[in-house]
Amino acid sequence: MKIDSMSTKEKVSEELLLEEETANQNEIVLFNDEVNTFDHVIETLISVCEHTPEQAEQCSLIVHYNGKCTVKTGEYKDLEPRCTLLLQAGLSAEIV
């Protein structure tokens, strides 16, 4: 018989903390447009959202084919300046 070292109360507390942390997360959603080039979108995602080149390319393709893509998740205070930079770069984005 295996004895679980974590009590049920501890497990529930841990699950609630995880749910709380997830509930405080926001997302920057990038929308497709007919203006910006793939290169511009990729370069902007790398510099503003700290994406790897592969991540940025994948996001740009998702935006192109699906119309939108979540490009960054986190706390609002971290996302707001990033979203502003995306908008200043001519991209269409919002925090949800």
UniProtKB/TrEMBL annotation:
Signal peptide annotation: none
GO MF annotation: an example: peptidase activity
Record keyword Signal present: no
Domain Adaptor protein ClpS core: 24-88
InterPro entries reported in the protein's UniProt record: ClpS_core, Ribosomal_bL12_C/ClpS-like
A biological process term (GO) from this entry: protein catabolic process
Keywords: Hydrolase, Protease
Annotated protein name in UniProt: ATP-dependent Clp protease adaptor protein ClpS
Organism from which the protein derives: Arenibacter certesii
Gene responsible for this protein: clpS
